[in-house]
Amino acid sequence: MKFFSYILVYRRLLLIVFTLLILLPLPLILRSKEAECAYTLFVIAIFWLTEALPLSITALLPGLMFPMFGIMTSKEVASAYFKDFHLLLIGVICLATSIEKWNLHKRIALRMVMMVGVNPAWLSLGFMSSTAFLSMWLSNTSTAAMVMPIVEAVAQQVISAEAEVEATQMTYFSGSTNQALEIDESINGQEANERKEKTKPVPGYSNDAGKISSKMELEKNSGTNSGNKYRTKKDHMMCKLMCLCIAYSSTIGGLTTITGTSTNLIFAEHFNMRYPDCQCINFGSWFIMSFPAAIVILLLSWIWLQWFFLGFNFKEMFQCGKPPTAKQKACAAFIKQEYQKLGPIRYQEIVTLVLFIVMALLWFSRDPGFVSGWSALFSEYPGFATDSTVALLIGLLFFLIPAKRLTKTTPTGETVAFDYSPLITWKEFQSFMPWDIAILVGGGFALADGCEESGLSKWIGNKLSPLGSLPVWLIILISSLLVTSLTEVASNPATITLLLPILSPLAEAIHVNPLYILLPSTLCTSFAFLLPVANPPNAIVFSYGHLKVMDMVKAGLGVNIVGVAVVMLGMFTWIVPMFDLHTYPSWAPPISNETTP
């Protein structure tokens, strides 16, 4: 038993050693650049899937192994770790830092919920809509961590309001107050406050669920007995519904923009590097392509979750002229109270909102496709200005525009201004910047370059060419289901980084437009809905103690099916004419029947 306990303690170290040794015959026996690159690829894939090493540390392995195998020089590998993607990420994080610093995200979320009303079904849709909108511009993790305390407080308020109504009725008939209820209300209020303090926004774009695990354990250990939290089964179902609405909508919202989640950014950079002549993937084209899909997935997921937990009662949803119940009044009062606490909109929020709108407009209008964009003003340098140029320009303004004056008191007692504080500072930016994702993505770029230099990509493409006999829709479905399954157990950035260098040569080998396979695979990488550890938003909502793993598996399976079905529908309807998917493009490499020994 002691031996097995040692194995358990040092399991990660043993996994690393055995992986390196078991795969070692591959480069030693075959002795080709393709085999040496494949060895590196398999080692990195296993380390990413098992997280035997931190993801970002594993991403540094190409910098060690490629020079040792003679595939690329250290200088060439190092240059792959910082690309246009990183400049775009820096500008976006500047925006996200300012939005969260000045509480603009909370104002937007509460305002959108107030607009849809307090009916439970519409309330859940309001939270889903506001969460999805915020997730378009902020990281999925930060959005879920910010909105969830508000949702928890609203849910507790709804439960206590219903209890208060029953207590009032009892008092009316018995003429006495229910002291036990008052105690229960105070406990519920205290729990809500504790939840607010415990959950803080998690900066960055990381999809590494391991970062949330320690926090999740603290939440579960400090939670009260679930039997004391819910008066009825319907209350419990409502809490489950609200939690999953936030988790899933934060992921769905990230699909709509290139900057919405790291997997979209990784795809855009990989695609633009591999196919530089395409110039068809930018902020505007991605939004037009993915926004309809995200809207349909969001609405269908809302209907599914509503039916799964509470039932879909059309009479209750569309009751016209019927006065709101006491529960709905209490819920509306709480949301309004939270909104009023923010006070009138401040100068800093207005400036952040203006910069946010300007950034979005510049992204859309750079090269919209159907008309000439502002990039045509620089016709002498076509393709030089990208989305990262816009992000850096706006990001720089956050460090320049004054937020408030800094004052000091002179010896004479006079208060004078001696400097000003910008909208964000470098320290605040650093606390939000996901350096781990920046390194992880850089490692993926280095891995892709190594596959090209060694000839492994061409070899894989030639071996996969027999798949060309299958119908295109079946190939897309298989790749989408493969990605969706893999992303449940591996981090989203690691999954897409690992599969893009394999799927690209597959599309070229079977003579299919690469976008036909890469677009659905990229979107499906975000469909990690089944498990608490599948992505950080799932872990955050799970930590509140309302859900069981099987609740998430059953509900998430339905959302997964909806997501894959809508993406497949989009690939054969509105997305086809956008990118002329039925034609093998001139910007993709021509078919080569050569085989690599």
Automatic annotation (TrEMBL):
CDD domains: SLC13_permease. The chain crosses the membrane at residues 42-69, 81-99, 119-138, 241-267, 287-309, 345-364, 384-401, 472-503, 515-534, 555-576. It is found in: Membrane. Its main location: membrane. The gene is SLC13A1. It comes from the Eukaryota. GO terms for molecular function: sodium:sulfate symporter activity. Belongs to the SLC13A/DASS transporter (TC 2.A.47) family. NADC subfamily. GO terms for cellular component: membrane. Pfam families: Na_sulph_symp (PF00939). It is a multi-pass membrane protein. It comes from Bos taurus (Bovine). PANTHER family: SOLUTE CARRIER FAMILY 13 MEMBER, SOLUTE CARRIER FAMILY 13 MEMBER 1. This is Solute carrier family 13 member 1. Keywords: Ion transport, Membrane, Sodium, Sodium transport, Transmembrane, Transmembrane helix, Transport.
